[in-house]
Design brief:
Aspartate Aminotransferase, domain 1, binds pyridoxal-5'-phosphate, four-stranded antiparallel β-sheet, PyrdxlP-dep_Trfase_major, Aspartate aminotransferase family protein, Aspartate Aminotransferase, domain 2, seven-stranded mixed β-sheet, alpha/beta
């Protein structure tokens, strides 16, 4: 080796290099956290011009590579902890999550087999048991950590599909999909996350397999429309694999009426998956846990900890009500989860996951729960929901702003409303306001559509943000609108 050993290992040289690299990066992070701007405001073209890979024959060494990452990545990163960074379901992270990442990364355990992650496997299984208890499932460990909501939704849809055909004596796992594929359907509300469509396409069933159910004025699934559409599907000989309810839609934060939908799913003998990627945070809430009433009745659940649980990306989970359904994705790989191992009760989590090599993201949530405790976790989750209500009340009082709908979780949908202009002009103005704010580096406010109306969105996850911060942001929105007019 031309240089010193680059691998993390026991030697004095390696541990010293490790400590130096971590010290250099963590000091840079501390400085970055203090940058006043939310974003340095460089354009796409500027960043393309500025950023280039410096891959040389001899290598730059750790220190110089880190300096370059600070210069070209860190300084031009979006400050997700900034009070005016509210565009997405994109949270600032817990300090304890950062400490967990150090352990996760340094140990580099892989969750696919016991012999690559012994203590980690047990911690993940115990955390899944604990999460199951929180949703009200029976004791057990059917579930797994995932890369996030998209993957968890895929697991729910895939198991629903395979359970549907298994009931008809057909194994999709062995023989692939049977019959007329155009008859296969899943149902979700028109506000469900697009990962439902993408996952159905990935499963070979196409976007058209998704039947959209109407929503009520609170953006929740309209159960009368669900029942009607299911009856029509049955009359047309369609095969309904699953209903996907959402607990926390991406924009409006709407929570579908889970208990009622569970009743309809039971009557139709249909798998019910709940995408609680966002709303699942309310499991830890003091004030709002009841919004998730009925979640214990569903067949499978998506949870995301890199949203309102404040964990670093990525960190999600999939929970499966009945462990027997895991048989539908069983694959025995001699080198990972052999029959011999399993007969002796060795837990190899590859059996529960779509991934093979997998990060030990469960540690972040485990350490987060231990460090914060129930009371503080509840407080930081409840903060956003309560703040959204206060912000909505404020928006409703501003003559130049219009509240597009009442908040349900921690988001506020609103728009700037000039005295003149048709809908298209107002839509364009709001789009431009969002773009101008990001270009200026001062704020990141979401631009989205709700019921065909282009609006601005604030996702108020950050527990350190106050109503005063948001009033300043809204004043900035108004000034930006005036400068664009
Ligand atoms: C309701 C909902 N479900 C699923 C997802 C996808 O989750 P992920 O980005 O973790 O894959 C999102 C993302 O925002 C979401 O809002």
């Amino acid at each position: 080796m031309s240089r010193s050993n680059p691998i993390l290992a026991a030697s004095a040289q390696s541990t010293e290099a490790y400590q130096q690299a971590i010290a250099q990066t963590s000091q840079a992070v501390v400085q970055w956290l203090q940058q006043p701007e939310m974003y340095q405001g460089k354009s796409v073209a500027e960043l393309r011009e500025r950023i280039a890979l410096d891959f040389t024959t001899e290598g730059l060494g750790n220190q110089a590579a880190i300096e370059r990452a600070i210069e070209y990545f860190l300084k031009d990163s979006l400050s997700v902890h900034h009070p005016q960074c509210v565009a997405h379901l994109h949270c600032p992270s817990l300090v304890i999550s950062q400490a967990a990442e150090v352990l996760i990364n340094a140990t580099n355990q892989s969750m696919d087999s016991w012999d690559q992650s012994p203590s980690a496997t047990i911690i993940e299984m115990k955390l899944i048991e604990w999460l199951r208890a929180q949703v009200g499932y029976q004791a057990g460990d059917a579930g797994v950590f995932t890369s996030g909501g998209t993957q968890s939704n895929l697991m729910g849809l895939m198991l629903a599909r395979d359970a549907f055909f298994a009931r008809q004596g057909h194994s999709v796992q062995q023989d692939g999909l049977p019959g007329d594929l155009s008859k296969i359907k899943v149902f979700c509300s028109e506000n469900a996350h697009f990962s439902v469509q993408k996952n159905m396409a990935l499963m070979g069933l196409g976007y058209r397999s998704v039947t959209l159910v109407k929503t009520d004025r609170f953006a929740r699934m309209d159960t009368a429309d669900l029942a009607d559409k299911l009856a029509l599907a049955k009359a047309n000989g369609e095969k309904v694999l699953a209903i996907v309810a959402t607990a926390g839609t991406t924009d409006a934060g709407a929570i579908d009426p889970l208990r009622e939908i569970a009743q309809i799913a039971a009557e139709n003998e249909t798998w019910l998956h709940v995408d609680a990627a966002w709303g699942g945070a309310l499991l830890l809430s003091d004030k709002y846990r009841h919004y998730l009433d009925g979640i214990e009745l569903v067949d499978s659940i998506t949870l995301d900890f890199h949203k309102q649980f404040f964990q670093t990306i990525s960190c999600g989970a999939f929970l499966l009500k009945e462990a027997r359904h895991y048989e539908l994705m069983r694959y025995q790989a001699a080198y990972l989860n052999s029959e011999f191992d399993e007969a002796q009760g060795v837990p190899n989590l590859v059996s529960k996951s779509l991934q093979t090599t997998r990060r030990f993201d469960a540690l972040k949530m485990w350490m987060g729960l231990e460090a914060l405790g129930q009371k503080q976790y509840a407080e930081i989750i409840d903060h956003g929901v309560t703040l959204a209500q206060q912000v909505a009340a404020w928006v409703a009082e501003q003559p130049a702003l219009e509240l597009v709908m009442e908040p349900q979780l921690a988001s506020v949908l609103f728009r700037f409303r000039p005295q003149q202009g048709d809908d298209a002009a107002i839509a364009l103005l709001n789009q431009k306001i969002g773009d101008a704010l990001l270009d200026s580096g001062r704020a990141n406010v979401g631009v989205t559509e709700h019921n065909g109306v282009t609006c601005l969105k604030m996702t108020l996850l950050n527990p350190t943000v106050t109503l005063e911060d948001i009033k300043l942001l809204l004043a900035l929105v108004e000034r930006t609108a005036a400068s664009l007019a």
